[in-house]
Write a structure and sequence with these properties.
Blueprint lengths: L10 H14 L16 E6 L7 H16 L4 E6 L7 H10 L4 E4 L12 H4 L7 H8 L2 H14 L1 E16 L6 H4 L3 E4 L3 H9 L3 E4 L5 H7 L4 E4 L1 H6 L8 E17 H5 L3 H35 L3 E3 L4 H7 L1 H5 L3 H12 L2
Parallel strand pairs: 1-2, 1-3, 5-6, 5-7, 8-9
Antiparallel strand pairs: 3-8, 4-7, 4-8
Helix pairs in contact: 2-12
Length: about 350
Amino acid sequence: MITRRQSLTGMAALGAATLGLAGCSSLRPDGGSDGDGGGTNTLVLGHAGSETDPRQLGSEQIKEIVEERTDGRITVEIHANSTLGSWEQMIEGLQLGTTHLVIESILALEAYTDLAAVETAPFLYESDEQFFGVWEGELGTEIKTALTEETGFELLGNMFRGARNLTVNSEVATLDALRGLTIRTPSTQTMVDTWQMLGARAEAMPWDEVYSALEQGVIDGQENPLDVATFNALYEVQTHCTLTQHMYANYHFLMWGETLADFSDEDQQIIREAADEVGRTYTERTVTSLEEYRTTLEDEGMVFVELEDREQWVEKVAPIIDELPDQVATWVEQIRGQA
């Protein structure tokens, strides 16, 4: 049985302190900056998951690979549980040099480019296989390259998260049942707009506040892949999971492009290949664990619900698709063409 997630009370203060310490250290303690690989360089890696979260396993794997293949020239320092701040703060830290790797999905870049709506646009995928066809192929590479060119952030590796689903404290099988409920979303406009258009009240909220908000009834539900509900023990504060599958996503190792470019060509290749290798392992683990996550949630009392009127949900959010930037609209057409 998976126990309640480790408490994040007070983590914001700890995160600020840790962020300050990270900011006082150089990526290159030996003072080098010419990418010649001299000395020991520490990559500070942050993520919002707990020590039992799949992101922690991915962090430990990339640490092992990078340190081994660079013969210790590069070390990786892992910070879980949002101890470096919220994901927004960690991503800002990539530019400031206080963090060097952050495990997040493309939606985290929506504040930097409207091209990130290619991930947050609702109901683009019909299956895992369609998603893999996009992100393991030329179109996925094209999208990631465009995002890097627009934002300066490198997106390394593809770590499949699974589909996002809705958890609530009532049976929501139709739009009528959703109407008026307060649903937590990440702070990305496309996702806020999606739930507003579906008839809910969207509440953008930092993740470390979500459990207590659900517990206290401040919000009625949240939406995320099943691993999030499992490893954060949301079954303690949520009774139902509606299989909306409204969005699919990968995690990536986000890295500031200038930081990566400061390494030697050899070490850049090692970091990129390590991220790809971790991505493959992470994806395989997700695919094999999805049924296990559902079983765990059901064993803990959560009831799973299928949508009865999926076409109406898709129709309701059609205006979001219609208003996407031209480049994203082209990608959406290509993605749907692979269904």
